[in-house]
Amino acid sequence: MTDAHPLTLFNSLTRRLEPFQPVHPGEARVYTCGPTVYNYPHIGNMRAYVFADVLGRTLSFKGYRLTHVINITDVGHLTDDADAGEDKMEKMAQAQAQSIWDIAQHYTQAYWADIAALNIRQPAEWSVATKYVPQMIEFAKAIAGKHCYELDGGLYFDVSTVADYGRLARAVTEDGEGRIEAVEGKRNAADFAIWRKTPPGEKRQMEWDSPWGRGAPGWHLECSVMSGDLLGFPFDIHTGGIDHREIHHPNEIAQNQAFCCTNGLDVPANSGAKVWMHNNFLVERSGKMSKSSGEFLRLQLLVDKGYHPLAYRMMCLQAHYRSELEFSWEGLGAALVRLKRLVMATENLKAHDGVDAELSRQADGLGQGQRAPGGKLGSFLERFDRAISEDLNTPVALTVMEEVVAAKKVDPREKLAVLAQMDAVLGLNLFALVRADLRIRPKSATITDAEIEEVLARRVQARAEKDFAASDALRDELAGKGVEVMDGDPLRWEWKLG
Predict the structure, then answer these.
(1) Spatial separation of the C-alpha atoms in residues 52 and 54, rounded to whole Å
(2) If the chain, 498 residues long, is cut into consecutive pieces of 10 residues, what is the mean pLDDT of each piece?
(3) Which of 437, 432, 423 lies closest to 53 in space, CA to CA?
(4) Strand runs (DSSP E) across 33-170, as ranges?
(5) What's the whole-model pTM score?
Protein backbone atom coordinates (compact mmCIF):
# COMPACT_ATOMS: atom_id res chain seq x y z
CA MET A 1 0.00 0.00 0.00
CA THR A 2 1.05 3.63 -0.43
CA ASP A 3 1.72 5.54 2.75
CA ALA A 4 1.80 9.25 3.40
CA HIS A 5 4.59 8.53 5.88
CA PRO A 6 7.28 6.06 4.78
CA LEU A 7 8.65 3.90 7.57
CA THR A 8 12.07 4.99 8.87
CA LEU A 9 14.06 2.94 11.37
CA PHE A 10 17.28 3.53 13.32
CA ASN A 11 20.01 1.20 12.09
CA SER A 12 22.50 0.43 14.88
CA LEU A 13 25.09 -0.59 12.28
CA THR A 14 25.12 2.76 10.46
CA ARG A 15 24.02 4.80 13.50
CA ARG A 16 21.39 6.68 11.51
CA LEU A 17 17.71 6.71 10.62
CA GLU A 18 17.03 5.03 7.30
CA PRO A 19 13.94 4.49 5.13
CA PHE A 20 12.85 0.87 5.27
CA GLN A 21 13.52 -0.75 1.90
CA PRO A 22 12.80 -4.49 2.02
CA VAL A 23 15.04 -7.03 0.37
CA HIS A 24 11.98 -8.66 -1.20
CA PRO A 25 9.28 -6.19 -2.37
CA GLY A 26 6.16 -6.33 -0.20
CA GLU A 27 7.80 -8.60 2.38
CA ALA A 28 9.48 -8.00 5.73
CA ARG A 29 11.73 -10.68 7.22
CA VAL A 30 12.71 -10.16 10.86
CA TYR A 31 14.86 -12.19 13.26
CA THR A 32 14.78 -11.57 17.02
CA CYS A 33 17.30 -12.96 19.50
CA GLY A 34 15.22 -15.02 21.91
CA PRO A 35 15.79 -16.20 25.48
CA THR A 36 18.24 -18.68 26.94
CA VAL A 37 15.78 -20.95 28.72
CA TYR A 38 17.71 -21.67 31.91
CA ASN A 39 15.59 -19.47 34.20
CA TYR A 40 12.48 -17.30 34.19
CA PRO A 41 12.75 -14.15 32.06
CA HIS A 42 12.78 -10.91 34.02
CA ILE A 43 10.76 -7.94 32.86
CA GLY A 44 13.86 -6.29 31.41
CA ASN A 45 14.22 -9.28 29.09
CA MET A 46 10.57 -8.96 28.10
CA ARG A 47 10.98 -5.33 27.01
CA ALA A 48 12.91 -6.64 23.99
CA TYR A 49 9.94 -8.74 22.89
CA VAL A 50 7.40 -5.94 23.38
CA PHE A 51 9.64 -3.79 21.16
CA ALA A 52 10.00 -6.52 18.52
CA ASP A 53 6.23 -7.09 18.62
CA VAL A 54 5.52 -3.39 18.00
CA LEU A 55 8.00 -3.48 15.10
CA GLY A 56 6.24 -6.50 13.61
CA ARG A 57 2.80 -4.98 14.11
CA THR A 58 3.99 -1.76 12.47
CA LEU A 59 5.30 -3.64 9.45
CA SER A 60 1.91 -5.35 9.16
CA PHE A 61 0.16 -1.97 9.57
CA LYS A 62 2.26 -0.60 6.72
CA GLY A 63 1.11 -3.44 4.48
CA TYR A 64 4.16 -5.73 4.46
CA ARG A 65 3.83 -9.51 4.53
CA LEU A 66 5.73 -10.31 7.73
CA THR A 67 7.88 -13.34 8.50
CA HIS A 68 9.16 -13.06 12.06
CA VAL A 69 11.47 -15.64 13.66
CA ILE A 70 12.39 -15.79 17.37
CA ASN A 71 14.93 -18.34 18.56
CA ILE A 72 14.98 -20.41 21.73
CA THR A 73 18.53 -20.93 23.08
CA ASP A 74 18.60 -24.30 24.84
CA VAL A 75 22.33 -25.00 24.35
CA GLY A 76 25.59 -23.14 24.00
CA HIS A 77 25.06 -19.91 25.96
CA LEU A 78 27.69 -19.56 28.67
CA THR A 79 27.27 -18.04 32.12
CA ASP A 80 29.12 -14.92 30.92
CA ASP A 81 27.91 -13.22 27.75
CA ALA A 82 31.58 -12.52 27.03
CA ASP A 83 32.13 -16.10 25.83
CA ALA A 84 33.31 -17.42 29.18
CA GLY A 85 32.27 -19.76 31.97
CA GLU A 86 29.97 -22.79 32.06
CA ASP A 87 26.98 -23.52 29.87
CA LYS A 88 23.98 -21.83 31.53
CA MET A 89 21.70 -24.76 30.75
CA GLU A 90 24.10 -27.40 32.10
CA LYS A 91 24.72 -25.36 35.24
CA MET A 92 21.00 -24.96 36.02
CA ALA A 93 20.33 -28.65 35.35
CA GLN A 94 23.04 -29.58 37.86
CA ALA A 95 21.78 -27.07 40.43
CA GLN A 96 18.21 -28.41 40.23
CA ALA A 97 19.21 -32.07 39.76
CA GLN A 98 17.04 -32.28 36.67
CA SER A 99 17.44 -33.27 33.06
CA ILE A 100 18.65 -30.37 30.94
CA TRP A 101 15.80 -31.18 28.54
CA ASP A 102 13.28 -30.78 31.37
CA ILE A 103 14.88 -27.46 32.37
CA ALA A 104 14.60 -26.21 28.77
CA GLN A 105 10.98 -27.32 28.45
CA HIS A 106 9.90 -25.75 31.77
CA TYR A 107 11.46 -22.35 31.15
CA THR A 108 10.40 -22.27 27.50
CA GLN A 109 6.79 -22.75 28.60
CA ALA A 110 7.21 -20.01 31.23
CA TYR A 111 8.57 -17.65 28.58
CA TRP A 112 5.70 -18.43 26.22
CA ALA A 113 3.21 -17.75 29.04
CA ASP A 114 4.75 -14.28 29.48
CA ILE A 115 4.59 -13.73 25.70
CA ALA A 116 0.85 -14.48 25.78
CA ALA A 117 0.23 -12.37 28.90
CA LEU A 118 1.84 -9.34 27.21
CA ASN A 119 -0.30 -9.83 24.07
CA ILE A 120 2.81 -10.39 21.93
CA ARG A 121 1.90 -11.96 18.62
CA GLN A 122 3.18 -15.42 17.77
CA PRO A 123 6.09 -15.34 15.31
CA ALA A 124 6.08 -17.34 12.11
CA GLU A 125 8.63 -19.68 13.70
CA TRP A 126 10.08 -20.46 17.12
CA SER A 127 13.50 -21.80 16.12
CA VAL A 128 14.98 -24.09 18.79
CA ALA A 129 18.77 -24.29 18.84
CA THR A 130 19.11 -28.03 19.52
CA LYS A 131 17.07 -28.82 16.40
CA TYR A 132 19.65 -27.06 14.23
CA VAL A 133 22.90 -28.64 15.46
CA PRO A 134 23.50 -30.59 12.20
CA GLN A 135 23.10 -27.33 10.25
CA MET A 136 25.46 -25.59 12.69
CA ILE A 137 28.14 -28.21 12.06
CA GLU A 138 27.76 -27.79 8.30
CA PHE A 139 27.94 -23.99 8.62
CA ALA A 140 31.11 -24.28 10.74
CA LYS A 141 32.67 -26.69 8.22
CA ALA A 142 31.96 -24.19 5.42
CA ILE A 143 33.87 -21.36 7.14
CA ALA A 144 36.52 -23.31 9.08
CA GLY A 145 39.17 -23.45 6.35
CA LYS A 146 39.47 -19.69 5.80
CA HIS A 147 38.27 -18.23 9.08
CA CYS A 148 38.84 -20.63 12.00
CA TYR A 149 41.56 -22.48 13.88
CA GLU A 150 41.60 -25.24 16.47
CA LEU A 151 42.75 -25.08 20.07
CA ASP A 152 42.51 -27.69 22.80
CA GLY A 153 39.15 -26.18 23.80
CA GLY A 154 37.57 -26.32 20.35
CA LEU A 155 37.21 -24.38 17.11
CA TYR A 156 37.75 -20.61 17.26
CA PHE A 157 36.85 -17.85 14.80
CA ASP A 158 39.68 -15.53 13.78
CA VAL A 159 38.09 -12.06 13.67
CA SER A 160 41.00 -10.65 11.64
CA THR A 161 39.77 -12.64 8.63
CA VAL A 162 36.67 -10.45 8.07
CA ALA A 163 36.43 -6.75 7.31
CA ASP A 164 35.23 -4.20 9.86
CA TYR A 165 34.88 -6.59 12.81
CA GLY A 166 33.20 -4.84 15.73
CA ARG A 167 31.76 -1.93 13.74
CA LEU A 168 28.30 -2.55 15.21
CA ALA A 169 29.69 -2.07 18.72
CA ARG A 170 32.31 0.44 17.60
CA ALA A 171 34.82 -1.92 19.25
CA VAL A 172 37.75 -1.27 16.92
CA THR A 173 40.50 -1.87 19.46
CA GLU A 174 41.34 -4.86 21.60
CA ASP A 175 40.44 -2.76 24.64
CA GLY A 176 36.94 -2.55 23.24
CA GLU A 177 36.61 -6.31 23.51
CA GLY A 178 38.12 -6.60 26.98
CA ARG A 179 35.27 -8.74 28.28
CA ILE A 180 36.03 -11.60 25.88
CA GLU A 181 37.38 -14.71 27.58
CA ALA A 182 41.17 -14.99 27.71
CA VAL A 183 42.12 -18.37 26.23
CA GLU A 184 45.70 -19.49 25.79
CA GLY A 185 46.56 -19.73 22.13
CA LYS A 186 43.94 -17.31 20.78
CA ARG A 187 45.30 -15.24 17.91
CA ASN A 188 43.26 -12.16 18.77
CA ALA A 189 41.63 -11.07 22.01
CA ALA A 190 38.23 -10.90 20.30
CA ASP A 191 38.35 -14.39 18.75
CA PHE A 192 35.42 -16.52 19.89
CA ALA A 193 34.37 -20.17 20.02
CA ILE A 194 32.47 -21.70 17.14
CA TRP A 195 32.53 -25.19 18.66
CA ARG A 196 33.47 -26.14 22.23
CA LYS A 197 34.96 -29.55 22.89
CA THR A 198 33.80 -31.38 25.99
CA PRO A 199 36.86 -31.43 28.31
CA PRO A 200 38.55 -34.82 28.74
CA GLY A 201 36.92 -36.88 31.50
CA GLU A 202 33.70 -34.83 31.44
CA LYS A 203 30.32 -35.51 29.84
CA ARG A 204 27.65 -32.97 28.98
CA GLN A 205 23.95 -33.73 28.90
CA MET A 206 23.89 -31.99 25.53
CA GLU A 207 26.80 -32.90 23.27
CA TRP A 208 27.28 -34.00 19.66
CA ASP A 209 30.03 -35.44 17.50
CA SER A 210 31.77 -33.02 15.14
CA PRO A 211 34.99 -32.81 13.08
CA TRP A 212 36.52 -30.89 16.02
CA GLY A 213 35.60 -33.42 18.70
CA ARG A 214 32.53 -34.22 20.75
CA GLY A 215 31.02 -31.10 22.27
CA ALA A 216 28.49 -28.33 21.72
CA PRO A 217 28.15 -25.28 19.46
CA GLY A 218 29.16 -21.80 20.52
CA TRP A 219 26.34 -19.44 21.44
CA HIS A 220 26.89 -17.05 18.52
CA LEU A 221 26.77 -19.79 15.89
CA GLU A 222 23.13 -20.73 16.41
CA CYS A 223 21.65 -17.33 15.46
CA SER A 224 23.64 -17.11 12.24
CA VAL A 225 22.54 -20.59 11.24
CA MET A 226 18.86 -20.26 12.13
CA SER A 227 18.36 -16.75 10.73
CA GLY A 228 20.04 -17.68 7.45
CA ASP A 229 18.20 -20.98 7.18
CA LEU A 230 14.74 -19.56 7.84
CA LEU A 231 14.98 -16.08 6.34
CA GLY A 232 17.82 -16.26 3.83
CA PHE A 233 20.82 -13.90 3.66
CA PRO A 234 20.48 -11.00 3.56
CA PHE A 235 17.19 -10.53 5.38
CA ASP A 236 15.62 -7.26 6.46
CA ILE A 237 15.89 -6.65 10.21
CA HIS A 238 17.70 -8.26 13.15
CA THR A 239 16.56 -7.16 16.63
CA GLY A 240 17.73 -7.68 20.18
CA GLY A 241 18.54 -5.98 23.45
CA ILE A 242 21.30 -3.37 23.52
CA ASP A 243 23.49 -5.78 25.50
CA HIS A 244 23.75 -7.94 22.35
CA ARG A 245 25.17 -5.01 20.38
CA GLU A 246 28.58 -5.26 21.99
CA ILE A 247 29.63 -8.91 21.51
CA HIS A 248 26.93 -11.35 20.41
CA HIS A 249 25.76 -9.47 17.33
CA PRO A 250 29.26 -8.46 16.12
CA ASN A 251 30.18 -12.14 16.31
CA GLU A 252 27.05 -13.11 14.39
CA ILE A 253 27.94 -10.56 11.74
CA ALA A 254 31.49 -11.93 11.43
CA GLN A 255 30.12 -15.45 10.92
CA ASN A 256 27.62 -14.19 8.34
CA GLN A 257 30.36 -12.38 6.42
CA ALA A 258 32.48 -15.52 6.42
CA PHE A 259 29.65 -17.79 5.29
CA CYS A 260 28.35 -15.43 2.58
CA CYS A 261 31.86 -14.41 1.44
CA THR A 262 30.89 -10.74 1.71
CA ASN A 263 33.16 -7.75 2.13
CA GLY A 264 33.12 -4.73 4.44
CA LEU A 265 30.21 -3.31 6.38
CA ASP A 266 29.98 -0.08 4.41
CA VAL A 267 27.29 -2.15 2.69
CA PRO A 268 25.01 -3.06 5.65
CA ALA A 269 23.52 -6.09 3.88
CA ASN A 270 26.99 -7.71 4.01
CA SER A 271 26.30 -8.24 7.73
CA GLY A 272 23.52 -10.71 6.97
CA ALA A 273 20.75 -8.22 7.76
CA LYS A 274 20.17 -4.80 6.22
CA VAL A 275 19.07 -3.23 9.52
CA TRP A 276 20.13 -4.01 13.10
CA MET A 277 17.81 -2.65 15.81
CA HIS A 278 18.31 -2.65 19.59
CA ASN A 279 16.08 -1.66 22.48
CA ASN A 280 17.64 0.07 25.47
CA PHE A 281 17.76 -1.22 29.04
CA LEU A 282 15.03 -1.32 31.62
CA VAL A 283 16.66 -0.03 34.81
CA GLU A 284 15.56 -0.66 38.36
CA ARG A 285 17.43 1.17 41.09
CA SER A 286 17.12 -1.49 43.78
CA GLY A 287 19.09 -3.99 41.71
CA LYS A 288 16.34 -6.64 41.69
CA MET A 289 16.39 -6.96 37.91
CA SER A 290 19.18 -9.52 38.15
CA LYS A 291 18.24 -13.19 38.22
CA SER A 292 20.85 -13.71 40.94
CA SER A 293 19.09 -11.35 43.35
CA GLY A 294 16.51 -13.86 44.64
CA GLU A 295 13.04 -12.38 44.08
CA PHE A 296 13.94 -10.75 40.79
CA LEU A 297 11.38 -8.81 38.81
CA ARG A 298 9.57 -11.28 36.61
CA LEU A 299 6.11 -10.75 35.17
CA GLN A 300 4.47 -13.09 37.67
CA LEU A 301 5.72 -10.93 40.56
CA LEU A 302 3.88 -7.95 39.04
CA VAL A 303 0.70 -10.05 38.86
CA ASP A 304 1.22 -11.25 42.45
CA LYS A 305 1.28 -7.62 43.53
CA GLY A 306 -1.99 -6.86 41.75
CA TYR A 307 -0.90 -5.43 38.39
CA HIS A 308 -2.25 -6.66 35.09
CA PRO A 309 0.56 -7.72 32.70
CA LEU A 310 -0.61 -5.25 30.06
CA ALA A 311 0.13 -2.41 32.49
CA TYR A 312 3.77 -3.35 31.93
CA ARG A 313 3.26 -3.31 28.16
CA MET A 314 1.76 0.18 28.54
CA MET A 315 4.79 1.20 30.61
CA CYS A 316 7.09 0.05 27.79
CA LEU A 317 5.08 1.93 25.16
CA GLN A 318 5.31 5.15 27.17
CA ALA A 319 9.06 5.32 26.46
CA HIS A 320 10.79 5.20 23.09
CA TYR A 321 12.43 1.82 22.60
CA ARG A 322 15.90 3.40 22.25
CA SER A 323 15.56 5.26 25.58
CA GLU A 324 16.34 3.82 28.98
CA LEU A 325 13.16 3.01 30.88
CA GLU A 326 13.21 3.23 34.66
CA PHE A 327 10.96 0.80 36.47
CA SER A 328 9.10 1.81 39.61
CA TRP A 329 5.94 0.53 41.25
CA GLU A 330 4.50 4.06 41.12
CA GLY A 331 5.18 4.24 37.40
CA LEU A 332 3.58 0.84 36.86
CA GLY A 333 0.51 2.00 38.79
CA ALA A 334 0.24 5.10 36.62
CA ALA A 335 0.50 2.95 33.49
CA LEU A 336 -2.31 0.74 34.81
CA VAL A 337 -4.54 3.79 35.34
CA ARG A 338 -3.80 4.95 31.79
CA LEU A 339 -4.65 1.51 30.41
CA LYS A 340 -7.83 1.38 32.48
CA ARG A 341 -9.06 4.67 31.01
CA LEU A 342 -8.58 3.37 27.47
CA VAL A 343 -10.30 0.08 28.27
CA MET A 344 -13.25 1.83 29.89
CA ALA A 345 -13.58 4.24 26.97
CA THR A 346 -13.61 1.34 24.50
CA GLU A 347 -16.20 -0.49 26.61
CA ASN A 348 -18.42 2.58 26.63
CA LEU A 349 -18.14 2.99 22.87
CA LYS A 350 -19.08 -0.64 22.28
CA ALA A 351 -22.14 -0.21 24.51
CA HIS A 352 -23.65 2.54 22.31
CA ASP A 353 -26.84 1.76 20.43
CA GLY A 354 -26.23 0.97 16.78
CA VAL A 355 -22.67 -0.27 17.21
CA ASP A 356 -22.22 -3.42 15.18
CA ALA A 357 -21.11 -6.22 17.50
CA GLU A 358 -18.87 -7.53 14.75
CA LEU A 359 -16.96 -4.23 14.63
CA SER A 360 -16.19 -4.67 18.31
CA ARG A 361 -14.30 -7.86 17.47
CA GLN A 362 -12.20 -6.52 14.60
CA ALA A 363 -9.11 -5.26 16.41
CA ASP A 364 -6.97 -8.16 15.19
CA GLY A 365 -8.16 -7.87 11.60
CA LEU A 366 -7.63 -4.16 11.01
CA GLY A 367 -4.28 -2.56 10.49
CA GLN A 368 -2.93 -5.28 8.16
CA GLY A 369 -2.54 -2.89 5.24
CA GLN A 370 -6.35 -2.74 4.80
CA ARG A 371 -7.36 0.33 6.77
CA ALA A 372 -10.86 1.59 7.38
CA PRO A 373 -11.53 5.21 6.33
CA GLY A 374 -10.65 7.76 8.98
CA GLY A 375 -13.71 9.99 8.47
CA LYS A 376 -13.68 12.91 10.90
CA LEU A 377 -10.77 11.21 12.63
CA GLY A 378 -8.64 10.96 9.50
CA SER A 379 -6.21 13.59 10.75
CA PHE A 380 -5.68 11.60 13.96
CA LEU A 381 -4.94 8.46 11.98
CA GLU A 382 -2.50 10.44 9.82
CA ARG A 383 -0.68 11.72 12.93
CA PHE A 384 -0.62 8.22 14.43
CA ASP A 385 0.86 6.88 11.19
CA ARG A 386 3.47 9.64 11.21
CA ALA A 387 4.47 8.88 14.80
CA ILE A 388 4.77 5.13 14.38
CA SER A 389 6.58 5.61 11.04
CA GLU A 390 9.24 7.75 12.71
CA ASP A 391 11.24 4.92 14.27
CA LEU A 392 8.30 3.52 16.25
CA ASN A 393 7.50 6.63 18.30
CA THR A 394 5.00 4.90 20.60
CA PRO A 395 4.83 7.69 23.24
CA VAL A 396 3.41 10.09 20.64
CA ALA A 397 1.22 7.36 19.11
CA LEU A 398 -0.33 6.69 22.53
CA THR A 399 -1.14 10.36 22.99
CA VAL A 400 -2.88 10.45 19.60
CA MET A 401 -4.92 7.37 20.56
CA GLU A 402 -6.07 9.14 23.73
CA GLU A 403 -7.03 12.21 21.69
CA VAL A 404 -9.27 9.99 19.56
CA VAL A 405 -10.99 8.76 22.74
CA ALA A 406 -11.53 12.36 23.88
CA ALA A 407 -12.82 13.65 20.53
CA LYS A 408 -16.36 15.08 20.71
CA LYS A 409 -19.34 14.63 18.39
CA VAL A 410 -17.94 11.63 16.55
CA ASP A 411 -19.91 8.51 15.65
CA PRO A 412 -18.93 5.72 18.10
CA ARG A 413 -18.51 3.30 15.19
CA GLU A 414 -16.02 5.64 13.57
CA LYS A 415 -14.06 5.93 16.80
CA LEU A 416 -14.02 2.17 17.24
CA ALA A 417 -12.78 1.62 13.69
CA VAL A 418 -9.88 4.04 14.20
CA LEU A 419 -9.06 2.71 17.68
CA ALA A 420 -8.99 -0.83 16.27
CA GLN A 421 -6.36 0.20 13.72
CA MET A 422 -4.27 1.93 16.37
CA ASP A 423 -4.55 -0.96 18.80
CA ALA A 424 -3.50 -3.37 16.04
CA VAL A 425 -0.12 -1.58 16.26
CA LEU A 426 0.15 -0.90 20.01
CA GLY A 427 -1.27 -4.25 21.09
CA LEU A 428 -3.04 -3.19 24.28
CA ASN A 429 -5.90 -5.60 23.54
CA LEU A 430 -8.50 -2.92 24.13
CA PHE A 431 -11.28 -4.77 22.32
CA ALA A 432 -10.96 -7.97 24.36
CA LEU A 433 -10.46 -6.47 27.84
CA VAL A 434 -13.07 -5.15 30.22
CA ARG A 435 -12.41 -3.07 33.28
CA ALA A 436 -12.91 -6.00 35.64
CA ASP A 437 -10.04 -7.87 33.91
CA LEU A 438 -7.63 -5.21 35.11
CA ARG A 439 -8.49 -5.78 38.75
CA ILE A 440 -5.93 -8.37 39.82
CA ARG A 441 -6.04 -9.73 43.37
CA PRO A 442 -2.65 -9.38 45.09
CA LYS A 443 -1.35 -12.67 46.44
CA SER A 444 -1.17 -11.18 49.94
CA ALA A 445 -4.83 -10.06 50.03
CA THR A 446 -7.03 -11.64 52.70
CA ILE A 447 -10.41 -9.99 52.01
CA THR A 448 -12.55 -11.50 49.26
CA ASP A 449 -14.11 -9.67 46.33
CA ALA A 450 -17.58 -10.55 47.64
CA GLU A 451 -16.79 -9.03 51.04
CA ILE A 452 -15.52 -5.85 49.39
CA GLU A 453 -18.62 -5.56 47.22
CA GLU A 454 -20.89 -6.08 50.24
CA VAL A 455 -19.22 -3.23 52.17
CA LEU A 456 -19.29 -1.01 49.08
CA ALA A 457 -23.02 -1.64 48.65
CA ARG A 458 -23.60 -0.52 52.25
CA ARG A 459 -21.46 2.54 51.63
CA VAL A 460 -23.45 3.44 48.49
CA GLN A 461 -26.64 3.20 50.56
CA ALA A 462 -25.16 5.35 53.36
CA ARG A 463 -24.20 8.08 50.91
CA ALA A 464 -27.62 7.94 49.28
CA GLU A 465 -29.07 8.55 52.75
CA LYS A 466 -26.51 11.35 53.31
CA ASP A 467 -25.11 9.44 56.31
CA PHE A 468 -21.58 10.59 55.62
CA ALA A 469 -20.25 9.50 59.01
CA ALA A 470 -21.26 5.91 58.23
CA SER A 471 -19.87 6.25 54.72
CA ASP A 472 -16.50 7.41 56.06
CA ALA A 473 -16.45 4.63 58.64
CA LEU A 474 -17.04 2.00 55.96
CA ARG A 475 -14.30 3.54 53.82
CA ASP A 476 -11.92 3.37 56.80
CA GLU A 477 -12.95 -0.25 57.40
CA LEU A 478 -11.94 -1.15 53.85
CA ALA A 479 -8.72 0.87 54.09
CA GLY A 480 -7.80 -1.08 57.20
CA LYS A 481 -7.99 -4.27 55.13
CA GLY A 482 -5.83 -2.88 52.34
CA VAL A 483 -8.64 -1.80 50.01
CA GLU A 484 -8.41 1.64 48.46
CA VAL A 485 -11.76 3.06 47.39
CA MET A 486 -11.57 5.51 44.51
CA ASP A 487 -14.57 7.84 44.49
CA GLY A 488 -15.58 9.73 41.40
CA ASP A 489 -15.96 6.72 39.12
CA PRO A 490 -18.97 7.61 36.95
CA LEU A 491 -20.05 3.98 36.63
CA ARG A 492 -19.61 2.96 40.26
CA TRP A 493 -16.91 3.37 42.84
CA GLU A 494 -13.75 1.60 41.81
CA TRP A 495 -11.44 -0.08 44.26
CA LYS A 496 -8.06 -1.68 44.32
CA LEU A 497 -6.15 -3.81 46.76
CA GLY A 498 -2.96 -2.23 48.03
Answers:
(1) 5
(2) 80 98 98 95 97 98 98 83 75 86 95 98 98 98 98 97 94 46 89 94 92 95 98 98 96 98 97 98 78 74 94 98 96 94 94 69 50 77 98 98 96 95 98 89 80 87 88 79 66 62
(3) 423
(4) 65-72, 78-80, 84-87, 125-128, 148-151, 154-157
(5) 0.89
